[in-house]
Structure prediction request, 246 residues.
Amino acid sequence: MELLAWRKLTCGLLMVACLLQLATVAEGTFLDTYQQQLAELHKELKSEIGKRFRENSELNGQLIEQDVIPLLAEGTVEIRDANRDLLEELAAIRPTDATGECWESVDSLIYLYSLFSQWDLQDCAYAGYARWMREDDLERFYPIAHELHRASSEVINAVIGILSEDNVVSNGPDVEGRLDGTLDHFNEVSIEGLQDLDEEIAKHTDRQTELQQFLRGCIDRTVATSRADVEFTVRYAEYYCVEGNK
Prediction:
């Protein structure tokens, strides 16, 4: 998406360059200078946005590697511990020759609750991704970057409109003033847009803390539910399969 936006903007800039070149054949003064300034600003803006895209991507990658994956790994270990405890407690009360529908029901509960805990853990991961990672595409960094692309394209289109007029050379002072105004606007758009992107990048620390808290809470609830499932299954086996057969 970033590449497509820059291709459109670059095509516009190439058109500007062609128009400036045609006009400069007749008047090689301010138009030539303006062409150089606009090209330099475009190159600088493209480079600065690219840096921020890379920084944002790196921070997102660190968020996954340093927070999401370790927390999910901890949750997986805790759930496995709960499942192991369940099997050990059942083994202590289950006769070696136990058969029948009651123990088949217990085995079904073991299977179902192990699936449920895995699904719950996956839901924690997906909810964390949907709320804090996908937000980059929908609400946070990318919309601001795309708005900067759009504003830059509007400036390029304004330049194309000015240079497409018939009196570019004959009405030099007026054209020069309008181009200067457009160049100043391009500067303002660039500075404000990059500042907005920097502010969003600076919010990564808050996002990291919020994501950690959410995942920790979600995983804790999943583990607690898994422990409750263990207790229920053991009580079920004791009451229906052990006591019920006495």
Residues 29-242 form one domain. The mean pLDDT is 81. The longest helix spans residues 30-93.
